[in-house]
Amino acid sequence: MKMKGLRQIKPYVAGAQPQDKKMIKINTNENAFPPSPGVLQALASFDGQVLRRYSALENNALRDKLAENLGVNRDQIIVGNGSDDILALAFLSFLNSDDAVLFPDITYGFYKVWADLFRIPFEEVPLSDEFEIVTTDYINSINGGIVIANPNAPTGIFKDLSEVEAIVAANQDVVVIIDEAYIAFGGESALPLLEQYDNVFITRTFSKDAALAGLRVGYGIGSPKLISVINAVKNSYNPYSVDLIAEALATAAVEDYQYYERVNAEISETRDWFSAELRALGFEVLPSATNFVLTKPAGIAAESLFEFLQSKQIYVRYFGDKGRLSDYLRISIGTQDEMAKVIQVIGDLFV
Fold first, then answer.
1. pTM for the model
2. Which has the closest alpha carbon to 31: 196, 215, 194, 285?
3. Bridge pairing between strands 122-125 and 146-149
4. How many Cβ atoms from other residues are within 10 Å of residue 217's Cβ?
5. What are residue 251's phi and psi, to 5 degrees?
6. Where does residue 122 rank: exposed (0-12), middle (13-18), buried (19+ CB within 10 A)?
7. Sign of the torsion angle spanned by Cα atoms 324, 328, 329, 332
């Protein structure tokens, strides 16, 4: 008998997580380097006895360090179980209009999933032929909110802050969510917009730039009014979303920001080198301000190259039948040695 009340939804499909120790894993945009020495020391010295207690409700230790680092007030920050948690809370908290929420047709795939899951009307706004966000498409349009990843994923393209501000200024009656998961690798943060606009909510993660994807910590930054609303939603279903270990290690990561500035600059340099090497092979490579590149292979289909690289224990991301992305691969940036190996393996195909 068919049961009533069951949800039917097409879930987000994450990148594969193979466990081969000899592989080059560059398919999920993880950081190429290990966590900072301060993080590892905090883990080694963590007092496990405290785990019998619940974690802090407000995570003030972490929020204080973030506020100091970002130049904002503590009451402008919320932390959660990865930026996915923060983004989901933002969808629930801020996007409750009958009008459609706008986000690009090629962007982080979870946006559409959350809109479906939370029954939020939405419209996917096409990127340009060059995979750019078209600013005018988000101006003078009736909507229930706007969500933009900047730099965008999976394109890697950064939208100039002046154009982001134009979108924010034209939509002050709704919340504009700016997903800055990759901002540490290029581009200019939207943080200065918080001083003038109350409708800006910025999300970030420790998974990419802090090499803590396995820890699951993210945060949001916005006006005290927005933070008050999203905190009320968070505390309505999962107030203890950041555990004691996660808060201690994330706090240590913020304290060790100079380490991350150095390694992330190195990743960006490797990205630019790798992009140039791919172009020398005839590949099309979109300009990236992230720790990955989106590339269209030359002389071989994207799916065929994906399968070939996997046979060599090199894991990249192929999105399959995704319209304009069907001819592209997304390749995360590993260490310089790893990326040199990838270029060598790809080059061997054309010898």
1. 0.95
2. 215
3. unpaired
4. 29
5. -60, -40
6. buried
7. negative
Maximum alpha-carbon separation in the chain: 61
Q: Rounded CA gap, 324 and 132, in Å?
A: 13
**Which residues are within 8 A (CB) of 348 and not within 5 positions of it... i.e. 6 or more apart?**
none
For residues 249 and 62, give the distance between their C-alpha atoms in angstroms, rounded to a whole number: 9
Look up residue 129 and give its amino acid: D
Structural domains of the chain, with CATH: 24-35+258-348 (3.90.1150.10), 52-255 (3.40.640.10)
Q: What are the tens digits of pLDDT across the range 140-175?
A: 889 999 999 999 999 999 999 999 999 999 999 999
- Residue 124 identity: E
- Report yes or no: 176 and 167 within 8 Å, Cβ to Cβ: yes
Nearest to 220 by CA among 180, 251, 192, 173: 180
Q: Could you tell me which of 126, 128, 120 has the C-alpha nearest to residue 87?
A: 120
Q: What whole-number distance in Å separates Cα of residue 317 and Cα of residue 330?
A: 5
Mode of pairing for the β-strands spanning 176-179 and 200-205: parallel
Contact 63, 80 (CB under 8 A): no
Sole residue written with tokens 């390749």: 331
Query: Is the distance from CB of 110 to CB of 218 less than 8 angstroms?
Result: no
What is the distance between the alpha carbons of residues 155 and 294, in angstroms, rounded to a whole number? Answer: 6
- 310: closest CA among 33, 26, 29? 26
Gyration radius of the chain over CA positions: 21
Q: pLDDT tens digits for 80-94?
A: 999 999 999 999 999
3-class secondary-structure state, position 102 = strand
